[in-house]
Amino acid sequence: MSTIYDVANVKGFIRMCNDGWLQGWHERNGGNLTYRMTDDEVAEAKPFFEEPREWVKMGVRGENLAGQYFVSTGSGKYMRNVLEDPHANIGIVEINETGDAFRVVWGLANGARPTSEFESHYMNHCVAAARTDGADRVIYHAHTPGIIEMSFVVPLEDRAFTRILWQMMTECVVVFPTGVGVVPWMVPGGPAIAEASSELMKTYDTIVWAHHGLFAAGPDFDTTFGLAHTVEKAAEIYLAARAANGGSDDFLNKISDKGLKDTCRDFGIKINEAFVD
Question: What is the 3-state secondary structure (H, E, C) of the chain?
Answer without folding.
Answer: CCCHHHCHHHHHHHHHHHHHHHHCCCCCCCCEEEEECCHHHHHHHHHHCCCCCCCEECCCCCHHHCCCEEEEEECCCCHHHCCCCHHHHEEEEEECCCCCEEEEEEECCCCCCECCCHHHHHHHHHHHHHHCCCCCCEEEEECCHHHHHHHHHCCCCHHHHHHHHHCCCCCHHHHCCCCEEEECCCCCCCHHHHHHHHHHHCCCCEEEECCCEEEEEECCHHHHHHHHHHHHHHHHHHHHHHHHCCCCCCCCCCCCHHHHHHHHHHHCCCCCHHHCC
